[in-house]
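Quick check before the chapter quiz. The format below is the same one you will see on the exam, so make sure you can read both the input and the output lines.
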Amino acid sequence: MVLLRVLLCALMLAAAPLVQAADAAVDAVTQAVARPDVLRGQFSQEKQVSGFKNPLRSQGQFVVARQHGVIWTTLKPFPSEVVVTADRILSRQRDGSTRVELDARQQPAMRSVNAIMFALMSGDVQALSSQFNVQASREGQGWRLKLTPKSAMLAKAFESLTLQGDRYVRQVEIVEANQDRTQIHFSALTEAPASLSADEARRFD
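Here is the expected output.
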């Protein structure tokens, strides 16, 4: 579930404008954030685990493709890659080996997790509003969204997701149900090129 929560945050990069406009503040965020077909960038992640003095840190890069899924590539401290599609989650290790982390075709009970992820990407407003309570506010030239889960399944995984940004999501904070906290910062965001490269498309196969 830790993996799924991190990937959920990655998908938020493309999905923040899709939250239902329940009030003027949410509507302002909806209008402010870009909705590209493909978004690329870099991430740095810091997780504070209860009982540990020093946080766990990682860095890498990602591709969010609205019609395909997410490629989440960790470069430090250990190279690895996770690919999410509508049907499955794959992990690739630095030796080139691939493992299926989740196959929704074989585990129907887990399909709802993928459904939420792709509701964020595809603009399924009804699905989103049924799963999240949304609080929005403007902060200078930017904005802040706090999402709290409605479903018991998501509530078991995390307490809240807080997003901050402008045209793009720049920072995500995850507060887990056990109070562990993860901060993810996104940088070097770009919409160009607007389509997947041959290598990126191959990695979704």
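If your answer matched, good. The mean pLDDT is 76.
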